[in-house]
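Protocol step 4 of 5: obtain the predicted structure for the target chain.
Materials: sequence only (see below). No template structures provided, no constraints applied. The aim of this step is simply to have a reference model before the mutagenesis design in step 5. Sequence pasted as it appears in the construct record:
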Amino acid sequence: MVRGKFKFDTSEAIPSGQRIKISIEDTSRLDIDAIQIADQIVTIPEGFDTAANDLPFELGYDVATEGLTLKAHMPRHAGDDIRKGDMLTTSTIRLESNKDITVTLQRV
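Step 4 output (structure tokens):
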């Protein structure tokens, strides 16, 4: 299980109901694409102030943590492709057992 919080790299309020897809991938092998281990949709709750608070999350998975990374994407449009204005992780977030993490979403 990974626990953490989303930080939003923006001063503007993000409307409730926005979806954030968080994924854990095995990125340990250099010769193949990443293998998806787990994913989940986190929804910003009604009345949650993203400008003042970090949004907590939990995501379970059943494999060892070595070589696992986490990424997140919050589309600001219908669909899952990445477009200008979306918020996403822009650096590698390696998972370490028993450590809470902070996932910063940045606007692209």
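Step 4 remarks: The chain has no helices and eight strands. The first strand starts at residue 2 and ends at 8.
Proceed to step 5.
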